[in-house]
Design goal:
The complex is a heterotrimer. By secondary structure, chain A is α/β, with parallel strands linked by helices. Chain A has 11 helices and 12 strands. Chain B has one domain: MetI-like fold (Orthogonal Bundle). Helix content of chain B is about 80%, strand content about 0%. Classes of the chains: A alpha/beta, B mainly alpha, C mainly alpha.
């Protein structure tokens, strides 16, 4: 069940995680029985369209799924041999911001508008370290410098910063306590393209400096290629393809992943039109009993409408949730 | 900050001018000839009426009289003369206003404390029994006319239990019932404002950020959420102070409190229009000042407003306006 | 047309999700699932709330009292019988009789029509007047906007009940003047809300998008601006209805509204107040109906606000 078996215990193991949102309009099956693993210092990317359940997975790891309506139905999240889902609230608080940090999608709204940015960084430092106020301020200033913001701006408020700068502040907050796992939820998608590269660069540098493992959530395959060791492709709450960066990018097996690549513009190829994926993601409150990609798949067969495929190993831990990979169906 | 205060004071001038014009015009269109009323009503002799007409320059054109009225107001603080007592309205108002203000202020403080506490409680326990209970009570509270709840208060505390006096405004026992009645009525609306503002803020991303830092729920609620949620609530409490003063007008007739409200309602009964207009003018002025105070408080809590009035602010604001669609 | 960058598209989608009208067919819902109009959707959400339904039922009961008082009231509102002065509530007169021997319940039933009439017409006129002023301010912007808003500031700086008092004291006490006074002191609220919501929507990308695909001004106004601006106006109108009923009763209470012997609730309270020491029922029942009317409107309004707020959709 592993992408790259290096033996020994894994740093993070997510096993059969199921998260539902119970709404007025029925149960939304946001995360459906997903499993993945990470080694220390590695980067795993969760790739998928909006609504595929990526963010919910991340929030699940931090026990921050908004409840109500969200609920972790089952599964295990094991970090360093301890099941996070078994921890009580105070224990989880000690882990959040300290051992596991998260960078959120929208820097515009992720910072408290009426606190200085410095105070917001110092807050997390004082929470998890026994340090004096002065020392916390000093360390917060250091963090600001590290993410490329002059320490003099400690007393500025978020509205005085641009989007990219705000995201740097968010990164500073996330890394202030040298977390072992950093979860990045589309950290650059709300930023301008030019700023994206800078911010990614900063993140990568700091990740190396702090020896942090990273769970990168994104829909941008370019970002994936630049940052990751392993890739998990999510579709409708399930991981449909999972493997090393090389396996997924060079030896793409799942029709959905292929379609994702086909919908990207390629400088090297001269094509009339890009190939979009036809149709829409299925309604997560009403998922089909068969393969969830069935209605959009260009390789579908009658068999696909009958069963929900399991994940097949396409060789060397490269998991593909498709009958094609299982050899039950021949490519047409 | 000085610049901000100055700017707000300047903004108040056209508003006050407008209120003065409005008060004057209302006085103008009031039925009855002021000269006749001043001379003592229908039985007055034509000579006496003519004399007063001459004295008050009532035959001058509208603009001239307004200029005169305005001049007298600014230089002498004269906001009209009572038809009935022939006394300047300003003197009587100055004498009575402190009672009304005291009552309104005590009620407002009471309402803020109770209202904010219950509102926060209701928001953090959303959808629980407690939340439903508080929400129901506050809804009943805002639906009760204050004069009715005063009457119920008198029925219960003064007549049934014989605990509190039902009229006058002399000892602290006299204050208790009116302040409690206005206070609870206002508290009800503060609860509703606080609750919805808190619920709005709790949904914000920065609250999730605070939780992701590992901050305890208590600090998340009181430090991060409450401070942000208070911004609209404070403005609303300020705006409600005007409503409170208006409510005081009615409450005072019920409890026979010698404040400005009783003055107004008595004047209405006697068709003493200058008193009505003069008092309304004073209350409007006070409301404006309170709103200014609230705005300053607002600027103190919210750095986004504060920085608009500092040095480079204008340039920054423009730039932000282009990139982020303005500040929230 | 310049190509939209990914962040721009995302911001666009996000804003669209925040908009009620466009939310129905998007986001969670599948392309194949039939998208229902916002009003139907909101109505369904509204009737699922027991409190809103309760408010609606009480309010409809009061409206039917106002429309057909003679069918509900056992007697006329001015049926004086001096053989039964100050009777406490009993089998015959469930709310007792008053100082002139009139049946309090009958008077309360007839009283509904005053509150409802004043409330309805005051809301209607301030909605129309405020709506027009607010849209003018929002559409023309700059100087027109400035002048209108300063004018509204003047009115708003006077506590509304005080302004209503000043106006009725000058115009004289009557049903029409009551409506005028309440509308004049209330319309700035509507104007502000209409202005704010139209300003907010005018700048949004989906309006720009509509313009970009060549929609006419009329289509933009009627298909995009107004439907999205309607929700806050409707909510304000229900809140305003409650406030107007309260104002009507308050003004009558201090002698500036409906005059006795007409059975307006505030007027009845004002008379009953003089007998409060001995005859509590003269004070309790009329006031209870004022409260009931305002309460039902507020209950309904709260439900409506939640039903129309797409963010509260769970």
């Amino acid at each position: 069940m592993t992408a790259k078996d290096s033996g020994g215990t894994k740093f993070l193991q997510v096993k059969n995680l199921i998260i539902h949102y119970e709404t007025d309009n029925g149960v939304v099956e946001a995360v459906n029985n997903i499993s993945f693993e990470m080694n220390r210092g590695e980067t795993l990317s969760l790739v998928g369209e909006t609504g595929a359940g990526k963010t919910t997975t991340a929030l699940g790891i931090l026990s921050l799924v908004p409840n109500p309506p969200g609920k972790v139905i089952g599964g295990e999240i094991i970090l360093d041999g301890e099941n996070l889902l078994k921890k009580n609230a105070p224990q989880m608080r000690k882990i959040r911001g300290n051992k596991i940090s998260m960078i959120f999608q929208d820097p515009m709204t992720s910072l408290n508008p009426i606190e200085t940015v410095g105070a917001q960084i110092a807050e997390v430092i004082r929470l998890h370290n026994k340090v004096s106020r002065a020392e916390a301020i000093q360390r917060a200033c250091d963090m600001l410098e590290k993410v490329g913001i002059p320490a003099e701006r400690y007393t500025d408020f978020p509205h005085q910063f641009s989007g990219g700068m705000k995201q740097r502040v968010v990164i500073a907050i996330a890394l202030a306590c040298s977390p072992e796992l950093l979860i990045c939820d589309e950290p650059t998608s709300a930023l301008d393209v030019t700023i994206q590269a800078q911010v990614l660069d900063t993140m990568r540098q700091l990740k190396d400096e702090f020896q942090t493992s990273m769970l990168m959530i994104t829909h941008d395959l370019g970002v994936v290629a630049e940052t990751s060791d392993n890739v998990a492709v999510m579709y409708a709450g399930e991981i449909v393809e999972y493997g090393t960066l090389r396996q997924v990018f060079k030896d793409t097996r799942h029709p959905y992943t292929r379609a994702l690549f086909d919908s990207l513009p390629d400088i090297g190829k001269d094509v009339e039109r890009l190939a979009p994926i036809k149709g829409m993601t299925p309604d997560p409150s009403n998922l089909p009993a068969c393969c969830s990609f069935y209605n959009r798949c260009s390789h579908r067969t009658e068999r696909c409408a009958q069963i929900d495929p399991k994940a097949y190993d396409a060789g060397d831990g490269h998991l593909v949730k498709c009958l094609l990979a299982g050899g039950e169906v021949r490519e047409p | 900050m000085t610049r901000y205060i100055l700017q707000r004071l300047l903004q108040m001038i056209p508003v006050l001018l407008g209120v003065i014009i409005l008060a004057f015009v209302l006085n103008e269109v009031a039925p009855g000839d002021p000269a006749v009323l001043l001379a003592g009503g229908e039985s007055a002799t034509p000579e006496a009426v003519a004399k007063i007409r001459e004295e008050l320059k009532l035959d001058d054109p509208f603009i001239v009289r307004f200029a005169d009225y305005f001049k007298k107001m600014v230089t002498e603080g004269n906001i009209g003369t009572s038809y009935k007592t022939r006394q300047p309205v300003a003197v009587e108002v100055a004498h009575r206003f402190p009672q009304t203000f005291k009552m309104a202020a005590i009620s407002a403080i009471f309402a803020s404390i109770i209202g904010i506490t219950l509102g926060v409680l209701s928001a953090i326990k959303q959808y629980t029994f407690l939340d439903n209970l508080i929400s129901m009570f506050s809804l009943v509270g805002v639906s009760m006319p204050v004069f009715w709840s005063s009457l119920l208060g008198i029925l219960f505390f003064s007549i049934h239990l014989r605990l509190l006096p039902s009229s006058g405004f002399y000892t602290w026992q006299h204050w208790l019932l009116p302040c409690f009645v206005i206070g609870t009525s206002m508290a009800a609306s503060v609860v509703r404002m606080t609750r919805s503002s808190m619920l709005e803020v709790i949904r914000q991303d920065y609250i999730r950020t605070a939780r992701a830092k590992g901050q305890s729920e208590r600090v998340v609620i009181f430090k991060h959420a409450l401070k942000n949620a208070m911004i609209p609530v404070v403005t609303n409490i300020g705006m409600h102070f005007g409503v409170l003063l208006g409510g005081a007008v009615i409450i005072e007739t019920v409890f026979v409190i010698p404040g400005i409200g009783k003055y107004i309602t008595d004047a209405i009964r006697n068709r003493d229009y200058p008193v009505v207009q003069g008092s309304v003018l004073v209350l409007a002025l006070v409301t404006c000042c309170v709103n200014l105070g609230v705005d300053l408080l607002y600027a103190m809590i919210d750095p986004r407003i504060k920085s608009q009035y500092r040095g480079m602010a204008k340039f920054k604001k423009k730039k932000r306006g282009l990139t982020e669609g303005g500040i929230r | 047309m310049p190509k939209m960058s990914t962040p721009a598209i995302e911001a666009f989608q996000k804003k669209q999700k925040a908009r009620p009208r466009l939310a129905a067919g998007q986001g969670k819902e599948n392309a194949e699932s039939v998208s229902v109009p916002l009003w139907v959707e909101s109505w369904r959400r509204l009737v699922r709330r027991p409190t809103a339904v309760l408010g609606m039922i009480i309010f409809l009961a009061l409206v039917s009292m106002a429309l057909f008082p003679s069918l509900i009231a056992p007697e006329g509102y001015d049926n004086q019988q001096f053989t039964r002065l100050f009777l406490p509530p009993n089998g015959q007169n469930i709310m007792g009789t008053d100082n002139l021997g009139r049946d309090v319940f009958s008077r309360v039933v007839y009283g509904a029509s005053y509150s409802m009439r004043v409330g309805f017409f005051a809301v209607l006129s301030s909605c129309l007047f405020g709506g027009v002023l607010g849209s003018i301010a929002a559409f023309y912007g700059s100087r027109v906007d400035n002048i209108i808003m300063r004018f509204l500031d003047i009115i708003l700086s006077i506590p509304s009940i005080l302004l209503a008092i000043a106006i009725t004291s000058v115009l004289g006490a009557s049903l029409t003047n009551l409506i005028i006074a309440i509308s004049v002191s209330d319309f700035p609220h509507y104007a502000r809300i209409v202005r704010a919501s139209i300003l907010g929507i005018k700048e949004q990308e989906f309006v720009e998008a509509a313009r970009a695909i060549g929609a006419s001004d009329a289509r933009i106004i009627f298909r995009h601006l107004l439907p999205n601006a309607m929700a806050p106006i409707i909510v304000q109108a229900t809140v305003g209805l409650g406030m107007s009923i309260l104002s009507c009763a308050s003004l009558s209470f201090i002698g500036l509204g409906i005059q006795p012997p007409l059975p307006e609730w505030g007027t009845m309270l004002s008379t009953g107040r003089e007998y409060i020491r001995e005859y509590w029922w003269l004070v309790v029942f009329p006031g209870m109906f004022i409260m009931l009317a305002v309460f039902s409107v507020n209950l309904f309004g709260d439900g409506l606000r939640d039903a129309l707020d797409p963010r509260l959709k769970r």
